[in-house]
Amino acid sequence: MTHNDHDCQGFATSSGGLPPAWRSHAARSLPRYTSYPTAVAFAPVEGDAEARKWLSAIGAEQTISAYVHVPFCRRLCWYCGCHTSVVHDNTRVAAYVGTLMHEVDLWADALPAHAGAAHLHFGGGSPNALSPEDFLALVRHMADRFSLRPGAEVAAELDPGMLSEAFIDAAGEAGVTRASLGVQTFDRAVQARVNRIQSFDQVAAAADRLRKVGVGAVNFDLMYGLPGQTPENVAASTEAAVTLRPDRVAVFGYAHVPWMKKHQVMIGEGDLADGDGRWAQAEAADSVLRGAGYLRIGLDHYALPGDPLALAAASGSLRRNFQGYTDDPAPVLVPVGPSSIGRLAAGFIQNAAATDVWSRAVEAGRLPVARSLPVTAEDELRAAVIERLMCDLTVDVGAECRDRGFETNALDAAVAAALALQADGLCRVEGRAVTIPEEAFRLMRVVAACFDAGLAPVERRHARAV
Ligand code: SF4
C-alpha cells in the first residue's frame, strides 16, 4: 500500500520555467511510449509463419488499421529522426510502389475475414515523395484489398515544402480525410540551420488547397529545441501557425541522437538550448496554442474543441499509438513498407527495415516481417497503465490489475517508484491511484517509466524527456 504523504504544491506554474528540482528528470532519456514494450525489445524472427498464425486469430467482427511507410524524401532535414533516405530517381520510387502494392496483396490474402479497414495512415519519410498517380493508385488498391469502411480515416503526413498542387489534388481524389503538414518552424534563420526552407505562404497555400479538394482536417507539426530556436521565435511561429487554424497541432522536441542518426552531426551540440531553454520554448508554444483556443491532448498534441481527438480525450477513449495519439480503437494494425510496425492481439511485428531485404521478401511471396515480440499478460497490464498515464494523466493501477486478473498489488513496486517522484511534484499517489498534476504534464514519461520493466539497459537509445 502506498500513501499520499507529501505536499505537491508550489513546484511550477505555466510561466515559471523549469523548476530546479525537475532538471534532472527533464534530462532523462526515455521512450515516447508510443508502444509498450517499446520497439527496442523486438527480437529477430525467421520467416512469416508466426505472423500468419497471429493474423489468423483476427475475428470477423474486428476492424483493422494499416500503416504504410514511405522511406523516401525529396530533401534531408538535419534534425530528421525518421527512417528515410533522399531520392531523386523516380524510377526507383515507382518500383517501390509496385512492391508496396504486392505487399498489400500478401497481407490482404493472409488476413482472415474482418470488418474492414477503419484507418489507413501514410507516413515516412514523405508520402508526397511518391508521384500523385502512384499515391492515388496505392490508396485505391489498399481501399479495395483491405475493404475500406465508409467514413474511415485516411491520413497522410506531408512535407509542405515539396508538396505539388497535383499531389494535393490526388490526395483529394484518393479520399484522404486528414493531412499532417510538417511545419516545424516559420523562422527563416532556424529553417536555414536545419536545411528545411519553406515559406509561410507555401504552408498556407497547401492548407487552403487541401481543404478545397475535400481533405477535411489539416494538422500541423511544430518543433522546439532546434538550433537557433528561442521562446520568442517559437511563439512567433506558433502564432503564425494558428492563423491558419489547423485542426490539430503536435509540438515535438528535437531529439539530438547523432550516434543513431548520422546526418544530425550537421547540428552542433553547442547550438542547442539547454533543458531550461527547451522547457521555455515548449511553454511558449503551449501558451500560444491554449490562448488560441486549442485543448492540450496528452504529452504533445493540441486540438480544436470538437476535433475527434479532443472528444476522445474528454471521454477517456484516447489511445496512444505509433503515430502519437489517436481516437482509432482498431485492435489490429497491419504494417506495410520497410520498418513499419504492426500490432496483433498476440504481439508486435515489424517489417524488415532495409528496403532491399523487405522487397526480396515481398517478391518471394513472404510477409516481410523481420522482428516480433509476443506480448505477455503482464506486458498488456503495464501497457494499459502507461497508456492511461500518457493519455489521461491519471490511472488507478489497482483497478487495472484487477480488471486483467492480477492481484491488485501486482505493480506495487512500480507504484512505489512513482511515489518516490511525488516529493518532486511529478505525480500524486493516493492508494494505488497515480495522477500527474497539470503543471507536470511535460514530464509524464518520467512517471510512465516507473511502470516500464525493460527500461534500464536502453536509456541511451531514447530522446531526453523535454
Ligand atoms: S521531410 Fe520529414 S522524414 Fe523527410 S528528412 Fe525531413 S524530417 Fe525527415
Mean pLDDT level: 93
CATH homologous superfamily identity of the largest domain: Aldolase class I
Strand content: 15-25%
Quick one: overall form?
A: globular
- Order of strands, widest sheet: 11-12-10-9-8-7-6-3-15
Helix- and strand-based class? alpha/beta
Radius of gyration: 22 Å
* Sheet with most strands: 9 strands, mixed
CATH class (first level) name of the largest domain: Alpha Beta
Regions with little confidence, pLDDT below 50 for 5+ residues: 1-14
Number of strands: 22
User: Which cofactors or ions or other ligands sit in this model?
Assistant: iron/sulfur cluster
Distance between the termini: 31 Å
* CATH-derived topology of the largest domain: TIM Barrel
CATH architecture descriptor name of the largest domain:
Alpha-Beta Barrel
Summary of the model, kept short:
The protein is of the alpha/beta class and 466 residues long. It has helices spanning 23-26, 49-55, 90-110, 132-145, 165-174, 188-193, 200-212, 231-242, 275-291, 308-315, 355-363, 377-392, 397-403, 412-422, 444-448, and strands at residues 29-30, 43-44, 64-70, 72-73, 85-86, 117-124, 148-158, 178-184, 217-224, 248-253, 295-297, 301-303, 319-321, 324-326, 332-336, 341-344, 347-351, 369-374, 394-396, 428-430, 433-435, 463-464. The protein folds into two domains: 20-37 and 376-464, Arc Repressor Mutant, subunit A (Orthogonal Bundle); 40-334, TIM Barrel (Alpha-Beta Barrel), CATH 3.20.20.70.
